[in-house]
Specification:
single chain; 5 strands; five-stranded mixed sheet; elongated; alpha+beta; Ubiquitin-like (UB roll)
Length: 114
């Protein structure tokens, strides 16, 4: 059995995606793999102390190790809070009459005629 594994490191911006395949020692941490991939030099905005990372869409710790064939993903911070956006969208639907004020669902057209 070889003591090297091959993994992918991915980082995506709205206009460009960087995907690097790299061979590393089997006991390498996610942090050391990202540094070895060169993506930190290519994208200086990546701060491994603050940036969240994951393996196959599951959040992981920077000190975790990975398996052969895994894909390490470097996540960007969210621009807006998804809960706040849904709340604003629901309030707007109620104001426009597209949602029932009590249940939040669609208004009953039969009750509207009464």
């Amino acid at each position: 059995m070889s003591d090297e594994i091959t993994v992918e490191v991915a980082y995506a911006l709205p206009q460009k995606q960087s995907l690097v395949e790299i061979s590393v020692p089997a006991d390498s941490t996610i942090e050391s793999i990202i540094v070895a991939s060169g993506l930190c030099e290519l994208h200086p905005e990546i701060d491994l102390k603050k940036t969240k990372v994951g393996v196959w869409s599951r959040v992981a710790k920077i000190r975790d190790t990975v398996n052969d064939g895994d894909r390490i993903e470097i996540y960007r911070p969210l621009i807006a809070d998804p809960k706040e956006i849904r709340k604003r969208r629901a309030e707007k639907a109620v104001e426009e009459g597209r949602a029932d004020k009590v249940t939040g669902g669609r208004p009953n057209p039969l009750k509207a005629k009464e």
